[in-house]
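Sorry, I am new here, but would you mind making up a protein's amino acid sequence and the tokens describing how it folds?
***
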Amino acid sequence: MLEAREGTSGPFCGQDAVGWVGGDTVPGEALDTFMAGISHSDLGCRLGLAGSTTGGSDWEKAVRGWAAKALLEDWLLRQETARLGVKEPGSVEEWVRCLEAAGELSRVRSSTPTDALAYYRANLHLYHLPEARHVRHLLVGDEGTAEGLMAALTDLADLEPLASEFSLDEGSRQRGGDLGWVERGQLCGPLEDVIFSAAPGQIGGPVLSQFGWHIVGVEALRPAKKQPFSGCELAIRAKLDEDRRQSAWVQWWRGRLAKMVTAAPEFEHPLRPGVPGLPHRH
């Protein structure tokens, strides 16, 4: 029998406790219930538990260690949710708002235009718009039908009504064969080659793909260009603000875990006594 640790509610046997969260002892029964719950789930199948919670094999012991860590963190999460009045535990923004109101987190600074511009310049590759073609197509099942329809086309305007009537592509047929803007890499090789070799206003095909025979028309071309900072500043600032809130919450959460959670010897990190963790080699 081991003596109670500081902050626990009384004596315990190491085999009967998973650990301690604040003033609560997390009993082994809670871990058994958690393991039983996942053993028959898709997760349990992927972990190879096969309905067993005996903990006999090394693999089951490792999974049990992972489950103990998850259980202790979930226990603390529920405690902190109630203590801080968090209404949406899945929302980092809600956590930050509650932590700021409680004085446990300094107000997270909002990004500035200067911050956004620095991010934009450091990540120009993210704001490169590749060449694209606005494409309309007609899909049929055999080459003969495709050639017959191709012969009936006098200009690009004829493609829309024919696609609406004959195309086998259910999705685009309702839009007169309109595929919208297509970039390189989105379609298969031969079909893409025809699209990107045609000038705006031209019709190409028939060309075979895995879906059948296509007749394609290029309605417009969008040259490759760089998205200007003015067009993405607000999105960048929103991303930076979200990243800052996430970082602030993660830092606070790690501090609370270190302060409030103690794992039983069976479940503690091999190099950090009291901290939940799995046996592993360095």
